[in-house]
Amino acid sequence: MQTIQDILQSLQQTHPNQPQFHQAVADVYQAVMPFVKRHEAYQQQALLERLLVPDRIIEFRVTWQDGDGQVHVNRGWRVQHNNALGAYKGGLRFHPSVDLDTFKFLAFEQTFKNALTGLPMGGGKGGSDFDPKGKSAADVQRFCQAFMLKLSNYIGPEQDVPAGDIGVGAREIGYLFGAYKNISGQFNGVLTGKAPASGGSCGRTEATGYGTVYFLQHMLEQHDQSLADKRCVVSGAGNVAIYTVEKLLEKNAQVLTLSDSGGTLLAKSGLTAAHLATIKQVKEVERGRLKAVAEAHDDLQFRADEKPWAVACDVAIPAATQNEMDETDAQTLHDNGVQFIAEAANMPLTAKATDYLLEQGVVIGPSKAVNAGGVAVSGLERTQNALMQSWPAEQVDRKLQDIMAHIHRSCVIHGEQEDGRVDYIRGANIAGFVKVADAMLFQGLG
Ligand code: NDP
C-alpha cells in the first residue's frame, strides 16, 4: 500500500499547479489511510488511486456580448468527480479567482460530502471566472445563457445536476434554468436551487446556513455545552453566512460579526433581527456592501480590510471562501478564547491553521459535514421534482434536521476518541469514504 507521502508526491509531479486540490486530498487521505490499512477490503481495486482522478473534466470557452455590444470571453469548467452513489451533484461558482484547481478540490470534497448526507448523489462542481459583481441583471442573463449553451450537453436529471455556490444565487439559477429549458425543450430537475414556482424546494435558500447551526448544536451537545449565549463570529455576508446568522439568532446565540471582501461588520452587543433585516436588504436586494449596513445603524461598526478573527468569541464560523483563515488568524482566535469552529464555507482553514487549532484542543467541524445541509435539500428538491410534488417548508426543515443529526452520528461513530471528544475531521472523512468506496467496490472497475 502506498504511503500518503508517495501519493502527495506523485500528485505534485503530475499536477504541480493544483495546491488546493492537494490540500483537499491530504485532508481526506490523512484520515482515511490508517483506516484503509486496517481494513483490507478497501485496499482492493486501486480505490485510493482512482479517487484521485475525476471521472471527467469538461473545460470550455464562453463567449458573450454585453448590452453595449462588447464581446467578452470567459472560461467555464465542470468537474464530474465520482458518480458511484448517483448522478453528479454540486454547485456552480462564478468568481474571477477560480481555475481548474478550484473545481478539482471542490468536486473531490463534494463526493464525500454528498455521501455523508445518505442521499443518492455523486460529486461534481463547476463554474466560470465570470464576475457577476457590478454587472447589470441583463448582462448576467446574457452570460448565463452563453454558459448554459456550452454546459447543457453534459448535464441532466439522471446525469449531472448543478446548483448554486459563490456568485450563483437564485437569480443566476433562474437564468441558467430558463436557458436549459430553451435549449433542451425539457422542464425537469436538471438544476437545484430553483424558485419554488419553477420546481424549487421550500427551504433551499436557508438550508446551508440552517444546517450549519443544526450541526453546530449537535457538536456542542456532544461536548456538554449549548448554543444559547455563545459568542459567535461569522465571516462572509452571502447566502450561507446570512442564514447561519438567522438561525443563530433564533437559538439565542450572540452574533458579533459578518464580513465581505471590503471588511468586517462588528456588533459589539450582538446582531439583532433589525440589523439582519438591513443586511438582507443591502446584500440580497441591493447587492451592496456591508459598509452600508454600518452606516444605517449607530450601534454597528465597520472595520475596512479586516477579517473577523480578532474578535473574542467562543465559536467561529467561517462562511466566505477557502483558506480564509490562516495560522496567524488561528492563533489570534485561540488567544481570544475560541473553543469550537464550524466550517460553513468549503475548506476555509489552511492546513496549518487546522493543525494548530487541533493541537490547542479546539473542536473543528469540517465543511463536508457542517455545510452539507445545502446539498441535502438540493437532494430533496430532486426527489420532489421526480415525484412531481412540492413539500411544505416544515417538512423539508424536519428532513434537514434529521439529515444533519445523521451526519453528526456518522462523524461520532468514526471520530470518537478515548477521552469522549470527537475528531470530526477524521469521522467525516472516514464515514464519507466508506460509503463511496463500498459503492465503487460493488460496481467494479470504472
Ligand atoms: P455568496 O456568493 O452568496 O457569498 C460569498 C461571501 O463570501 C460574500 O460575502 C463574499 O464577499 C465573500 N467572499 C467570497 N469570496 C471571497 C474572497 N475571495 N475574499 C473575501 N471574501 C470573499 O456565496 P455562498 O454564501 O453561497 O458561499 C459561501 C461558502 O459556502 C463557499 O465556500 C461555498 O462553496 C460554500 N457553500 C455554499 C453552499 C450554498 O448552498 N450556497 C453550500 C455549501 C457550501 P463579497 O460580497 O464582497 O463578494
Quickly list its features:
single chain, 446 residues, alpha/beta, Rossmann fold, five-stranded mixed beta sheet, 16 helices, 15% strand, globular, binds NADPH dihydro-nicotinamide-adenine-dinucleotide phosphate
Query: What molecules are bound to this protein?
Result: NADPH dihydro-nicotinamide-adenine-dinucleotide phosphate
Mean pLDDT: 97
Radius of gyration equals: 21 Å
Order of helices and strands: HHHEEEHEHEHHEHEEHHEEHEHEHHHH
Named at the architecture level, the CATH assignment of the largest domain is: 3-Layer(aba) Sandwich
By CATH reckoning, the class of the largest domain would read Alpha Beta
If you consult CATH, what is the topology of the largest domain?
Rossmann fold
Q: Helical region count?
A: 16
**CATH homology group of the largest domain:** Leucine Dehydrogenase, chain A, domain 1
> What is the total number of structural domains?
2
What amount of the residues lies in strands? 15-25%
- From the N-terminal CA to the C-terminal CA, the straight-line distance is 20 Å
Helix content: 40-55%
